Amino acid sequence: MNFSDLEKTGLGKIVQLVADFSITNLIIDSRKLVLSEGALFFAINGPRNDGHNYISDLYNLGIRQFVIEKNIDIQNFPKASFFLTIHAVDVIQQLAAIHRSEFAIPIIGITGSNGKTIIKEWSFQLLSPDYNIAKNPGSYNSQTGVPLSVWAIQPYHQLGIFEAGISQPGEMIRLQKIIRPTIGIFTTIGTAHDEGFENVELKISEKLKLFDGVEKLIYCSDHELIHKAIVKKNIPKLSWGRNAGADVQIHSTSTLYKILFQSKKIELIIPFQDSASIENTLHCIALMLHLGYDSHVIQNRINGLKPVSMRMELKEAINQCQVIDDTYNNDLAGLQISLDFLATLQKKKVVILSDVLQTGLPDHELAKIISTILLKKDIHELVAIGPVLKSQRQFFSGIPYTTFFLSTEEFLNQFDFTSLFNKLILVKGARVFQFEKIVHRLQRKVHGTVMLIDMGKLVHNMNYFKSKLKPGVKIMAMVKAFAYGSGSEEVASLLQYHRVDYLGVAYADEGVELRKKNITLPIMVMNPTEESFASLILQNLEPVIYNLKTLQSLVKFLGHRKAYIHLEVETGLNRLGLEENDLDEVIATLKSNPEIQVRSVFSHLSGSDEKIHDGFSKEQFDRYQKFYQRLSKDLSTKPLRHILNSAGILRFPDFQMDMVRLGIGLYGVDPTEENFNGLEMAATLKTVISQIKKIKAGDTIGYGRRGVAKQDMTTATIAIGYADGFSRSFSNGKGVVLVSGKKVPVVGNVNMDMTMIDITGIYAAEGEEVIIFGEGLPIKEVANNAGTIPYEILTNTSERVKRVFVSEGI
Predict the structure, then answer these.
(1) Closest among 784, 789, 799, 793 to 723, alpha carbons compared
(2) pLDDT at 74 (0 to 100)
(3) Residues ≥6 apart with Cβ < 8 Å to 243
(4) Which element (helix H / strand E) includes 476?
(5) 552, 620, 775, 783: most buried, per Cβ within 10 A?
(6) How far is it, in rounded angstroms, from Cα 476 to Cα 205?
(7) Distance separating alpha carbons of residues 84 and 43, to the nearest angstrom
(8) Among candidates 377, 420, 421, which has minimal Cα distance to 399?
């Protein structure tokens, strides 16, 4: 669909048309834009923010297509096209519905009050070995989240799994037109958003509108109201339950579940004990039975189910306690589920609970219901946070210990955390209360060293480099070496979501791992070996051929099977690459083996980052062109051409050709000597102070007694060492770290797991954060201190250092 086709929706009119680009990306958040000529920004005038305020900034960044809800002075944007509508969200939904209609793949639609995201994510885990799957990122299930998720369906997808959430009548029918599921799953019905509906029957009826036209609706017939509504609507169904009338009959003893389906008896072990996880698993089992999976496959796959983030997570806590992190949302049904999980664990139980919002109940009735639920679950202590619970404290007198606070901040400042010893703590709160701060305070810090990866900054950097490219130039993003230390799977998933053209890895096993994580982008493997040919072909990976021996071995291995390859040309780096005198034999081999297709021909510039080498870079480019022209002429083909890395993109715009390779620049490192502005460092490595010591003049510090106190000093031991990637070359003052915003030197030798630093004259406390590199301490400076380059600093960060990926939304 092109921009001019927006008028065919009947939802508005074009008020300025400059260039009629195809629409490729839908953007509602200016912080998460994808810079491409097909990007379309929707300026939504919402209750808290007005998207029209960001049009000027986005225009300056290169966005050229806008949907607007009010008249603006479009003369200020002569190169942009504008579509005026009353409701931009209507346009997003209509575009997504049109996009959905172009695909005939099966779609699983999920709704209900609880468990939507978990069932979606678990269904994805269970089915992804067999399908390329499109799904909502996170819990992107709203009136804008659903269309943005469905828009991500691509021709290579074989299945879609989308959840849908509503808060009032009339919303589900809009989402149904976008998702159009062929298979449905109805989870549960609870009290969330009750205030938007007259009664529970109306809420069920509204949610069921998602399943208009489904081939089969999966649900638990033990939920009587849901069962009656489905039967009344005569929706084709696959019910499961413990009753004799269910299509999938369930009988259980402990963790063993005996299942009767289509006259076949199977037995499965469900590796969970809490009722919510069991019910979610049974929904997934019913789905797999419907899709024809046998019991052995089902058992193997449910054994490997992984926890879903932003849901209940059991974590080690301070004072020999454990904390259940359920800070995702808070409603009455969710509270019951959380308490069921709590009941399976044997310790004195503490509940830290926020006000339950959006129930539509009077405060006293709500408090009475909550107290009844808590008393039934043998809760030892209640910490209640919020004005409603505090005002209704009289209802909680039956709980042995209770304390009440108006806000999360008041609790954090006044509560005696030493009173919590060897207890099980449920932290359950609505998002607005920011209970993640409580979990952070309670959680035991096992290893204080983490690398934070800001996904928003990765996208910013990608767009920065895109702004330097000529129209039509493709991007190959390099994710080799654990994505420069940042985490290959997570970074590759982000890049796939934002539609880069290619990924590049160093070795075949890196590509295989990405394929296992549902990365479907084309992947170039820089260093293939004969031993890896089988996995290369099996996983649809594309090897680089850099010598005749490898090419001949591949021909022998393939035996006339089809394969895509990339040719690396030697132009002066003198590392790997085909020489000019190899060209005749390369051409002859490829001519006699037409099943081998050359996807690209590339080379490397030896000194693209330094001006002193510009003359040699031009020589390399000319050598490459000569090789390519001869090859393409004799083979009558025009493979993609690329020679530029991150530095080259910034310094040699005339050498861009068909594609560029974006590596360390994606992570915010400027590899040139010019210091280009506009990049943002995406990675921050930080640790904590384990202990602070007072050292007397003349005393020594650390192994080998290399650190000597020339005068009285204060040292801090930080929780990072060379096993974490903090090099021993930082020893004895060569390295510095950031404490309280000030740079302080390393004292003595860097140890395997610890390092001592001089904090004399600086206020600091044990447990305080220490920046190894990041804001205030650029990675370039850190690399210079070690006499190395930023590449080494990033890639040396050990995989034992936890990666934490942060983003305000995808």
Answers:
(1) 799
(2) 93
(3) 221, 222, 249
(4) strand 474-478
(5) 620
(6) 48
(7) 10
(8) 377
Query: What is the phi-psi region of residue 698: left when phi exceeds 0, alpha when psi lies from -120 to 50, beta otherwise?
Result: left
Q: How far apart are CA 4 and CA 20, in angstroms?
A: 6
Catalytic, 703? Answer yes
Q: What is the pLDDT of residues 575-615, one digit of tens each?
A: 999 999 999 999 999 999 999 999 999 999 999 988 999 99
Q: Which residues have C-beta within 8 Å of that of residue 362, sequence separation ≥ 6?
A: none
Contact between residue 260 and residue 242 where contact means Cβ atoms under 8 Å apart? no
Q: What is the pLDDT of residues 655-693, one digit of tens each?
A: 999 999 998 899 888 888 787 778 888 888 999 898 899
Helices (H), 378-487: 387-391, 408-414, 436-442, 455-466, 480-484
* Active-site residue, 480 included: yes
Catalytic residue among 516, 703, 743, 802: 703
Query: 110: which 2 tokens?
Result: 């999920």
Closest residue by Cα to residue 341 from 285, 268, 280: 280
Q: Which residue has the tokens 């992804």?
A: 128
Identify the CA nearest to 29 among candidates 64, 48, 60, 54: 54
What angle separates helix 200-208 from helix 224-233, to the nearest 10 degrees? Answer: 50
Characterise 670 by phi-psi region: left (phi > 0), alpha (psi -120 to 50), beta (else): beta
Query: Taking the CA atoms of the chain, what radius of gyration do you get in angstroms?
Result: 30
For the segment 341-354, the average pLDDT, to the nearest whole number, is: 79
Cα separations (Å) of 336 from 220, 373, 375?
18, 7, 12
* Residues 6 or more apart in contact with residue 299 via CB below 8 angstroms: 268, 269
Rounded distance between C-alpha atoms, residue 292 and residue 499, angstroms? 33
212-235 pLDDT, tens digit each: 999 999 999 999 999 999 999 999
pTM: 0.59
Which of the residues 480, 502, 628, 686 is marked catalytic?
480
First to last CA, the chain: 23
Residue 381: φ, ψ to 5°: -145, 140
Using CA atoms of 35, 32, 807, 305 in order, give the dihedral in degrees to the nearest 10.
Answer: -80
Can you say whether the dihedral through the CA atoms of 362, 342, 422, 720 is positive or negative? negative
Beta strands 563-568; 542-545: pairing state: parallel
What's the pLDDT at 805? 66
